[in-house]
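Last lecture ended with a question: if I hand you only a sequence, what can you say about the shape of the protein? Today we answer it with a concrete record. The protein is RNA helicase. Below, first the input exactly as provided, then the predicted structure, then a couple of comments.
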Amino acid sequence: MSTARTENPVILGLPNQNGQLRGSVKPAGAPGGGGGGPQQQLNQMKGTINNGNSQPAPTTNAVIKPGDDWKKNLKLPPKDMRMKTSDVTATKGNEFEDYCLKRELLMGIFEMGWEKPSPIQEESIPIALSGRDILARAKNGTGKSGAYLIPLLERIDLKKDCIQALVIVPTRELALQVSQICIQVSKHMGGVKVMATTGGTNLRDDIMRLDETVHVVIATPGRILDLIKKGVAKVGQVQMIVLDEADKLLSQDFVVMMEEILGFLPKQRQILLYSATFPLSVQNFTMLQLAFQPNSHLQKPYEINLMEELTLKGVTQYYAYVTERQKVHCLNTLFSRLQINQSIIFCNSSQRVELLAKKISQLGYSCFYIHAKMRQEHRNRVFHDFRNGLCRNLVCTDLFTRGIDIQAVNVVINFDFPKLGETYLHRIGRSGRFGHLGLAINLITYDDRFNLKGIEEQLGTEIKPIPGIIDKSLYVAEYHSESGEEVKP
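The predicted structure:
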């Protein structure tokens, strides 16, 4: 059996529904486990749930003297030997040292396990360091966060006790994730202060935090705009603003707030826009500037497009034709036959997320769920516990489609098929992260048949009928190793 199972699944933890319907937790080293026991994982989490504001403990590395080989002192993670596709390997052969970055920043980069720049990092880091605006499009999971965080951190001046950079993201979970990456990459830089601020958290805590030194703010639009208007977040010296998942931030949901935020910033500031998708009506990148009417905020942006094809090379896509009543049985069959490390299962509504999570737990499988109507502390706990490998299966809405990077996810299941190609692209991009292999399985009903055909045509991809036996080499790391060759489905 490929997933953790128990005869009596229970709801653990917080008094209200907290999104954690669990079976037994897999022991360390077991298939699909988190690589450590629950207490060890919780210890690793300490300092990361408090809205992303925590800084890592001071490092104890010995002072590096001139002439020393500073790389010998690095605490590198184990080398990832999984095969990678050309989505991340088709580079020019550059090294991070080629960009004349601060040594302390390089130390953080290498200790993250980032060995060489990915294509989007190669294209954008030197341009961003030059101060030019960027409009970049690259596939999910190919290193966009590093592409903007590295030049952002390089340009921070620790002598200035003010906010120097803003990163705006559309979801709270993505804000927490980006802030943790930023904190880890900058941990050797001698005091870069990073803060995450999102809706659903205590405003007073953010006000107190901003009374101290903060260099980088990672935020959702509504909360940072509120803090700016209150005069708490002083952005008069911001030199760089990043819009991550820019297409969402320029949509009708956020564009008015983005206009207001940009209006508070200095006129001489750099704007970096990154996304995997832009609205299909936008045939030319420069048309995106129309979203900022009546004022065009971008100044002759450098355009990067690394998406000749839209879907990730490493994600194999299948569909299973079922009736609505057969979906749960089909999901149960998939659980029993697939070798799942971690899976994300998408539904089209919060209500269906909770109903499906309950049904999965009744079948005996450990299961978390997350959606936008949950209390923020519950969402934070589910996000961090799942990311740390404490549960194998997560049921969610499209809240989890944007930017969320969980390397262990090798299977994505669309329990409900989406209506939009952009939604589909972001969902399946939760597997196959950073050039690795993954599986996307879609449960298709009679009513979905036209959406399936339309999304195939829209994305220029093929979603194949699911075979009786799925080759494990298509999505299980142990069945392949790094060879430089691309796996062909």
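Comments.
1. The radius of gyration is 22 Å.
2. The CA atoms of residues 137 and 305 lie 5 Å apart.
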